[in-house]
Structures are given as C-alpha cells and as structure tokens.
From TrEMBL:
GO terms for biological process: methylation. S-adenosyl-L-methionine binds at residues 139, 171, 193, 240. The gene is prmA. It comes from the Bacteria. This is Ribosomal protein L11 methyltransferase. It is an enzyme of class 2 (transferase).
Length: 304
C-alpha cells in the first residue's frame, strides 16, 4: 500500500467550491475535504505521489485559475506538499515498469534486468527524487523528437566519434534526454539543472548506462552556467521545463545556439504554445512542428 501522498490545498471563494471539487476529482484525487477559513473555503485533496509530477500539479494550478476567471471570481491560492514521507522514493518503484518510447527507446528501471534481445536503445534509469522516468508525456515527446533529429546520425553510439551533434539539455532532471541523445549518437551533451538532486541523478544515470563521462558535462544551474561551460555554440537544445520558464530563457538559449541549430521545447500546455512560439520567433527561431500528447505539447524549432 502506498503511504505517501500529495496534499493539495486550495483556498478559494465559496462560490468556487463545487468547481474545485470537480477539478480535483477529475485530476484523480482519492479524497477531498473542505473547511471554512474566514470568508473563504479551504479545499484539500489527496492523491498518491506516483500519480502526479510537479508539471501536472502546475497544470492543475493553471486550470483552477482558469476556472475562476471563467466564473469571474478571484483566482484561488494553491499549495501542495508531500505528507507522510515514509520512504516514498522506494514505494513508487513497484508502479514503474519498463516502457517503450517512440520507435527506438526502451526505458528500463535500474532494478529490472536489462533485456538481452531487444532491438531498442535501452536507457537504464534510477531517477531517485528527480523528474524524468519517461512516464510523462513531455519527456516522451522530447525523446521522440530527439529520435527524429538524430536519426540520420552515422555515429557509433558507443564512442560518439566522428563529429556528431553537441547538445545543451536545460533542466536535465534524471538525465533521461541527455542519455537518450548520447545513445542516439550525439557527440556531447552539456546538461544543467537548478536542482542539485537532478545533477546527482544525471551523474548516476550516466554511469548506469556506461557512457564515457567526458561526453556528458553536468552542472547545477541554468543556461548561464551552460554558456560558461561551452567552448562553442551548440547544434541543438532540448528543454523540458514549464512554458513560463522557457519564455524567460529563450534569449539566453538563443545566445548559445548556432545559426543552424535546432531546438526541442516541451513542458508546454497546449494553450500556452502560442506564447512560447511567439517568443521563439521573435528570437530568430522557426517553429517546424508542434506535437501534442494529452494536454501537453512539444515545439520542434530551428534557426531561420
Ligand atoms: C519537467 S523536468 C524535465 C526533466 C527531464 N529533462 C525530462 O524531460 O524528463 C524540469 C527540470 O527543470 C529543472 N528546472 C526548473 N527551472 C529551471 C531553470 N530555470 N533552469 C534549469 N533547470 C530548471 C527542474 O529542476 C526539473 O528537474
């Protein structure tokens, strides 16, 4: 039995209570409760931690705000926290199974035996506390986009010799996209994340996949840190963070790109795609394709 839960707390106008309950129910909350707090209502919702990642909670937060705007009410205040932190990092593992993604990848949890006769590229992963198991639609869209971008690579995945793409992975989480790119034949990846746990997880997953550590430079920070580590502009950028963050980082990411670079941007809700695309276009990128999965999308772009 899973004993670790997200507790979501939504403080709203009383008129919004029903719509908040409805939203939490359709989001998958297993239990809900409400109480009066002055002139407002505090609604609490509970769901197992493996059922939602931070991106999903951010999306829920956006929907709750949109629901309030549609009813011409003040937007609710939303908080979330993990409760009963009893070894949650291991309790969710039983729910995470090997998973095929796109045409080429197989994500294999580190505690499962590696399949011997698979014709897929196997990414072995233990994300620990970091985001990036491959279960999330945005990670899948990025891996599939990398497949497309790097499919004509003639490199040896084992050595990455003979040129090949140099890529920046902004917000690397578990390192899943960096490792995927390297196994597809990228020459080198510069991976950054503001979360130190993600940096640690990426380094550990690099070792798990037997990749030469010179091929993956990992550091804590954001695009500014990647820019300092780079010796030349990159051939490609992959960035799976929320839309607001991407919009803020586009000028800095453009500054580390070549005139011929490509980009893969996800973590974007479908309704936010126009704002991200507009910002990219203002900074000299052309949106080639927009791929959707569930409520999320991924922009595949290139420099004009
Ligand atoms: C949605 S996860 C993506 C993880 C992984 N790349 C994937 O696709 O599954 C976003 C990651 O971005 C990191 N992050 C958030 N804001 C950032 C910023 N401004 N710069 C760099 N990393 C950031 C978070 O710590 C988190 O690990």
């Amino acid at each position: 039995m899973v004993k670790t839960w997200w507790e979501l707390q939504i403080l709203c106008e009383p008129e919004l209570e029903d719509s908040v309950f409805w939203r939490l129910g359709s989001f998958g909350c297993r239990g809900t409760a409400s109480e009066k707090k002055g002139n407002q209502i505090l609604v609490r919702g509970y769901l197992p931690v493996f059922q939602a990642q931070l991106l999903d909670l951010a999306a829920l937060s956006l929907w709750l705000r949109q629901d309030a705007l549609c009813m011409e009410m003040a937007p609710p205040t939303i908080h979330w926290q993990l409760i009963d932190e009893q070894d949650w990092a291991s309790s969710w593992k039983q729910y995470w199974l090997p998973q095929e993604i796109g045409d080429r990848f197989l994500i294999n949890p580190a505690w499962y035996p590696t399949p011997e006769n698979s014709d897929r590229i196997i990414i072995r992963l233990d994300p620990g506390m970091a985001f990036g198991t491959g279960n999330h639609a945005t990670t899948q869209l990025c891996l599939e986009s990398l497949e497309m971008r790097l499919s004509d690579s003639l490199l040896s995945p084992a050595t990455g010799e003979q040129g090949g793409a140099v890529i920046a992975d902004i917000g690397c989480g578990s390192g899943i996209l960096s490792i995927g790119a390297l196994l597809l034949g990228a020459k080198q990846v510069y991976a950054v994340d503001t979360d130190p746990l993600a940096v640690q997880s990426t380094q550990e997953n690099l070792l798990l996949n037997g990749i030469d550590k010179e091929r993956l430079v990992v550091a804590q920070g954001s695009v500014d840190v990647a820019a300092k580590l780079l010796t030349a502009p990159v051939d490609g950028i992959v960035c799976n963070i929320l839309a607001d963050v991407i919009i803020e980082l586009v000028p800095q990411m453009s500054a580390i790109a070549k005139p011929s670079s490509w980009g893969i941007f996800s973590g974007i809700l479908v309704e936010q795609s126009k704002a991200v695309a507009d910002t990219l276009e203002k900074n000299g990128w052309v949106v080639a394709t927009l791929w959707k999965r569930k409520e999320w999308c991924c922009l595949n772009v290139r420099r004009s």
